[in-house]
Design goal:
The chain has 413 residues and is α/β, with parallel strands linked by helices. It has helices at 21-29, 44-50, 67-71, 91-96, 109-124, 127-135, 161-172, 197-203, 223-228, 246-254, 298-318, 351-361, 392-402; strands spanning 2-4, 13-15, 35-37, 56-59, 78-81, 100-102, 153-157, 176-180, 192-193, 206-209, 234-237, 260-263, 287-289, 339-346, 365-373, 377-385, 406-411. Helices cover 31% and strands 19% of the residues. Bound molecules: 1,4-dihydronicotinamide adenine dinucleotide and 2-oxoglutaric acid.
């Protein structure tokens, strides 16, 4: 695949899932005007059709970017996930096609932490059940089973950006923060690491999940794990729907093995606001259900729009892959006097030699070269002194493209 960079108004941008208008404004400010904005997500077949003309794609958590979809994406240069999670994208397939994927690693962190903090208090006070009763004409004025958060043990599973932010906020309420993480983590404030998941589950009054979706976190919490939790404790999941076995949770709540739960993410989520939400948890009084809105605040969404659009623009304008989640990271100065070539290739021996041999053969001076590789892919950005009027750029691109193992070549400017 090879592209001589298009004029900005020819670059087709598709934004799905109602990403914040700040993204559109950011693109437009930088001269990108060919933007299609769709409020919902598209299913696999619709995406396979639509993606064929798209250079930059923006999605949130609903759009599944499978290997099949990516196989139709001949023009696609980069994907922006306007969220933290990137599990909805086949990152390996994207990388192997030279498609760079970006996300917003902390623009909605605070929003999730605040929601979880609110849920902790609501659940410990049995507000979901009292609220449901009141809506039906009931009056459950009783302290039975209601507790303060102060002094209770908060067990955080996954002590990353959200887990640590939540831990700090919870300490302000006087909670005792314990966490379990597969990595060694700096314990902030008075938080304490716990050596194993069962140990954390046994001692916590509130268990909250803040792990990514990975093969290891799939069904991390099932009937066996719930059985080790205190019957007075509550479970919160605002991470990914595949982390908790929902049937096991529903039966534990019905059998009063747990005192309550707050669930924001589900194994199957509606693809739009018009679709009916089905779940075995529906109707359980002491279960707070929210429609995957942990990160959905105006502040977070506006910031994410600017952040991710900015990353896509920087990649489009100067080739920078800084903070890409599936790609070697190259951060670049702009060279006003040079032309810039991008070469994405399979990481195999001799690639750089082959690239530089072409420059030597064509008597082109290289004024800057930036290479990064990971185990599969190499990404080299080459600034060259070529007269903008000279036709040699076409020949360079052709010869770069002919190097065996080349995935994509582009001339930026
Ligand atoms: N409900 C919502 O709207 C939102 C949900 N999320 C979800 O929250 C997740 C966490 O976000 P961040 O804190 O920003 O991620 P992060 O990457 O900063 O932290 C994740 C932590 O989980 C740990 N971890 C991974 N596997 C583990 C395992 N098997 N057991 C214990 N710990 C494990 C990691 O070592 C890391 O410390 C995201 O991946 C996303 O899926 C994020 C934002 C909004
Ligand atoms: O707001 C969204 O669409 C998804 C939020 C989320 O789950 C994430 O940021 O990972």
């Amino acid at each position: 695949m090879s592209d001589v960079s298009l004029a900005k108004d020819k670059i087709q941008i598709l934004l799905l899932e109602g990403v914040h208008p700040s993204a559109v404004e950011s693109f437009e400010r930088q001269g990108y005007s060919n933007i299609e904005y769709i409020k919902g997500s598209l299913d696999e077949d619709q995406l396979c059709e639509k993606i064929q003309q798209v250079h930059f794609l923006g999605i949130r958590s609903r759009t599944q970017l499978t290997a099949k979809v990516l196989a139709h994406a001949d023009k696609l240069l980069a994907v922006g996930c306007f969220c933290i999670g990137t599990n909805q994208v086949d990152l390996h397939a994207a990388r192997e096609r030279g498609v760079v994927v970006f996300n917003a690693p902390f623009s909605n962190t605070r929003s999730v932490a605040e929601l979880v903090l609110a849920e902790i208090i609501m659940l410990l006070r049995r507000i979901p059940a009292k609220n449901m009763a009141a809506h039906q004409g009931g009056w459950d004025k009783s302290a039975q089973g209601s507790y303060e958060a102060r002094g209770k043990v908060l067990g955080i599973i996954g002590y990353g950006h959200i887990g640590t932010q939540l831990g700090i906020l919870a300490e302000q309420l006087g909670m005792q923060v314990r966490f379990y993480d597969i990595e060694d983590k700096l314990a902030l404030g008075n938080a304490q690491a716990v050596a194993s998941l069962p140990s954390l589950l046994k001692q916590a009054d509130v268990v909250t999940l803040h792990v990514p979706e990975t093969p290891q976190t799939q069904w991390l919490i099932g009937a066996k794990e719930i059985a080790t939790m205190k019957p007075s404790s509550v479970l919160i999941n605002a991470s990914r729907g595949t982390v908790v076995d929902i049937d096991a949770l529903a039966s534990a709540l019905k059998n009063e093995q747990l005192s309550g739960a707050a669930i924001d993410v589900f194994p199957q989520e509606p693809s739009s606001n018009n679709e009916v939400f089905e779940s075995p948890l529906r109707g359980i009084a002491q279960c707070l259900l929210t429609p995957h809105v942990g990160g959905s605040t105006m502040e977070a969404q506006a910031n994410i729009g600017i952040e991710v659009a900015g990353k896509l623009v920087r990649y489009s304008d100067n080739g920078s892959t800084l903070s890409a989640v599936n790609f070697p990271e190259v951060s670049l100065p702009t060279h006003a006097t040079s032309r810039r070539l991008l070469h994405i290739h399979e990481n195999r021996p001799g690639m750089l030699t082959a690239v530089n041999q072409i420059m030597a053969d064509l008597d082109i001076n290289v004024s800057g070269q930036y290479l990064q590789t990971d185990e599969k892919v190499g990404y080299v950005v080459i600034d060259v002194d070529i007269d903008p009027e000279a036709k040699v750029a076409d020949e360079v691109v052709q010869r770069l493209r002919d190097i065996p193992g080349t995935i994509r070549t582009r001339v930026l400017y």
